[in-house]
């Protein structure tokens, strides 16, 4: 292994060390109360070292979302490319994939939705913002193609496929954010999965996915 390769590997190891520490700090303190100094202490690094990898707290926060978006991209792409299943079955697989994405890392996906609905995106580097946008566009695009196939086969209502994918994603993110805000007030009540089930059932009916042949 050459010197350049070792340095690159060490840089990536240090970057992951910072991200893991940031996740722990954001989990304990939340985004608003957490500081770069808190994260540096958790990672056992100097604050100056953090700024060599991330220009601000917002960028570090957003970097946590990339892993979720990459997983979403893989799951949705698999559903879209799977040959054979009826469009209704693909919709069921898509909904199951969305449950899986939430279960993959609940805290990070909640943080991601908060990020996407805030002014924080304006503080990100162009490179990181483009990564987030690209992964989001790819996933939403694959969702739209699933709906397009269902519309062409007469299994779903005639509507713009991109609008249907946007609605499904908005429903998913909205329920998660709403239930997370309720849970913050009363942690004894967690109705997320039950509420998502009702929401997805209503969506199925709305697109005509429960009408059979």
Q: Can you put this structure into words, describing what you see?
A:
The protein has 2 domains: 1-54, Homeodomain-like (Arc Repressor Mutant, subunit A); 56-207, Tetracycline Repressor, domain 2. The protein has helices at residues 3-33, 36-43, 47-53, 57-81, 87-104, 106-116, 126-152, 161-185, 192-207. Helix 1 (3-33) packs across helix 4 (57-81). The longest helix has 31 residues, at 3-33. It is mostly helical.
At a glance:
This protein is mostly helical and 213 residues long. The chain is 79% helix and 0% strand. It starts with a helix and ends in a 6-residue tail after the last helix.
Write the layout of secondary structure elements.
Elements: H1 3-33, H2 36-43, H3 47-53, H4 57-81, H5 87-104, H6 106-116, H7 126-152, H8 161-185, H9 192-207
Helix pairs in contact: 1-2, 1-4, 4-5, 4-6, 4-7, 5-7, 7-8, 8-9
Keywords summarizing the entry:
single chain; 213 residues; mainly alpha; Arc Repressor Mutant, subunit A; Tetracycline Repressor, domain 2; 2 domains
Instruction: Tell me what the CATH architecture of the largest domain is.
Output: Orthogonal Bundle
Shape: globular
Radius of gyration, CA atoms, in whole angstroms: 20 Å
Total beta strand runs: 0
Average pLDDT score: 87
What is the H-and-E element order? HHHHHHHHH
What structural class do the secondary elements suggest? mainly alpha
Report the helical percentage.
over 70%
Q: What is the CATH topology of the largest domain?
A: Tetracycline Repressor, domain 2
How many separate domains make up the residues?
A: 2
- Kindly report the name of the CATH homologous superfamily of the largest domain: Tetracycline Repressor, domain 2
Distance between the termini: 60 Å
Query: Treating each run of at least 4 consecutive H or I residues as one helix, how many helices?
Result: 9
CATH class category label of the largest domain: Mainly Alpha
- Beta-strand content estimate: under 5%
Largest sheet: none
Question: Could you name the ranges where pLDDT drops below 50 across 5 or more consecutive residues?
Answer: none
């Amino acid at each position: 292994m050459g010197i350049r390769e070792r340095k690159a590997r060490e840089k990536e190891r240090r970057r992951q060390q910072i991200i893991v520490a940031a996740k722990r700090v954001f989990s304990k303190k939340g985004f608003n109360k957490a500081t770069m100094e808190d994260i540096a202490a958790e990672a056992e690094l100097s604050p100056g070292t953090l700024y060599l990898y991330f220009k601000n707290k917002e960028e570090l926060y957003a970097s946590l979302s990339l892993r979720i978006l990459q997983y979403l991209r893989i799951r949705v792409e698999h559903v879209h490319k799977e040959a054979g299943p009826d469009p209704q079955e693909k919709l069921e697989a898509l909904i199951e994939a969305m449950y899986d994405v939430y279960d993959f890392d609940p805290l990070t996906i909640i943080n991601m939705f908060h990020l996407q609905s805030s002014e924080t995106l304006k503080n990100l580097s162009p490179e990181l913002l483009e990564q987030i946008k690209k992964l989001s566009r790819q996933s939403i695009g694959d969702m739209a193609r699933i709906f397009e196939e269902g519309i062409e086969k007469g299994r779903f209502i005639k509507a713009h496929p991109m609008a249907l994918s946007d609605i499904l994603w908005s429903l998913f993110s909205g329920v998660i954010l709403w239930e997370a805000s309720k849970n913050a007030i009363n942690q004894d009540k967690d109705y997320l999965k039950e509420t998502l089930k009702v929401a997805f059932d209503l969506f199925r009916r709305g697109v005509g996915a429960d009408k059979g042949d």
